[in-house]
Amino acid sequence: MDFRIEDISEEEIDRRLSVVEPLTDSVRQLVDAVIRSEVSDERLTAAKDRIDEIVADLREQQRPGSFGTPYTKEFIGMPWGNAAVGARNAVAPPLHVRRSPGLAECEMELGAAYEGPGGCVHGGIAALLLDQLVGEAASTDGLPSFTGTLTVKYLRPTLLGALSARAEVTGREGRKTFVHATMSDADGVTVEADAIMICPKDFELPTGDALPPPADRRLDR
Ligand SMILES: CCCCCCCCCCCCCC(=O)SCCNC(=O)CCNC(=O)[C@H](O)C(C)(C)COP(=O)(O)OP(=O)(O)OC[C@H]1O[C@@H](n2cnc3c(N)ncnc32)[C@H](O)[C@@H]1OP(=O)(O)O
Description:
alpha+beta
């Protein structure tokens, strides 16, 4: 796991987010517009050329590999490339997760980019988002957990649109944490999942005087 420390203040985090979140949002709009656009082929081709120019511009300075999850010295995580919650990742809906001990919840709006069966959420997307949520719930005690096993049951089709999701820790056994999660629409639960989350053997969080104890650490924002 990447525990790169980037010692910046909360104000600096907010400043950076105020730049990248609107950019990522525009890219989300772009993805949605490309899926649903009915303009002429000529206009689609012209759009491609303009997008290629923007890509070339952004590629002038690139981080190698992935974004990773840098942490501040106070252990505030910045998982901005994450596929479910990343502030710089247009693939992420994004989920804005609220956490309390043993619990993670969020609301989301899933549009055309998340389609599986016509008009419905792709099953893999539901699994991705619930996987993130079970990870967040299991990690609310300050220790990271990897998904060991995720069992997903699709109860009925999940229509694209406004949805909510919830994950709750149901038990702990040594390094294993058991989590139950659901995704719901206005009529109730559409998908449920059970996860066995595992804190890797020999895993040690960075320690130091500047760091709060694990239980008090904020693992991301
Ligand atoms: C601090 C920062 C963190 C921030 C996080 C913020 C939120 C992030 C949210 C992100 C969310 C995103 C989420 C993601 O995307 S997580 C990414 C997807 N998951 C992975 O890539 C995990 C890959 N697998 C591994 O790394 C290892 O296999 C793990 C760590 C899982 C176990 O390897 P380890 O060597 O440690 O295990 P052990 O052999 O000592 O066994 C220990 C116990 O566990 C039991 N067991 C083992 N494997 C499994 C299994 N697959 N299912 C069920 N149970 C299993 C085993 O029987 C034993 O039980 P017992 O005999 O003791 O009863």
